[in-house]
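Changelog-adjacent note: as of this version, every example in the card shows the full chain rather than a window. The one below runs 300 residues end to end.
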Amino acid sequence: MRATSFLRLASFGIRTILFREKKPILGTIILTDKCNLHCRHCSVNNLTAVIYPYRQIHDEMRTLYAMGIRILFFCGGETLLWRDGERTVRDLVREAKDMGFLIVNLVTNGTFPLDVPEADLILLSMDGDRERHNLIRGDTYDKILENVRSATSDNICFYMAVNQLNQGAVAHVCRLARDTNHVRAVSFNFHTPYPDTQALALKREEKVEVCRTISRMKKEGVPVFNLESAFPYLIDGTFPTPCHQCVVLENGKLSVCGRCIHIPGLCEHCGYFFVAEYTLLFDGNPRIIIEALRTYLRYI
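Full-length structure tokens:
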């Protein structure tokens, strides 16, 4: 991260903590809900299968920038399916950088070529070893690793949603992140139980074991892009929700924190690690602040 970017983000954090502000800093634009996969834990793919046009995405970028958003994510559906004429996601990332966003990331399932070197991070879904990943996402494990090894930049972060089907593969994904070229780190979530996927949610004791495994992997030198000091809050669901510093914009509809906020009762079972980390960070938790500084400066 450039020093100027760090100072601007640090200034936002200090103001938020001191004055208890609820202004957003991180924004996500949904480019499409169209996806080439039908993953067993996903409730938001192919609801409309509409790819939103460039002019709309451009206007949404300007809207978020005017709100003070400086960390931008592009998401799907499958993000890399987005195209409008000759424009691709890579053009959106470049334009976001030119517009003034300090950090620009994208989320992908990794089944398409990974050629977006301008992105700060490419968060790539890797949901276990070959058997468990393919059980969740179809026969994609080998194709994804082939794309990772052929990537044009070292900006990839594995992104694993831990659920009943893959909780035994956390260590595998950790070591895979450590040992695979072009992968900078690995990041975890617990499965958030949308109404049609509740059976995949982890029990408390299972969350405890997952966190123990992640902590053990960190001691083995695995580059984990999560904060251990947030684990107790994630296990017991005691972090504040929603995260007012994050917003999602999809087809003109702005949601605080995430799209799941509109589902009654789901916030109470949130499994998103970054939500816990951000809400605790901007609440002024000193352990979170110290660990966040060390982690974010290392991996972004």
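Structural remarks: Residues 163 and 246 are 24 Å apart (CA to CA).
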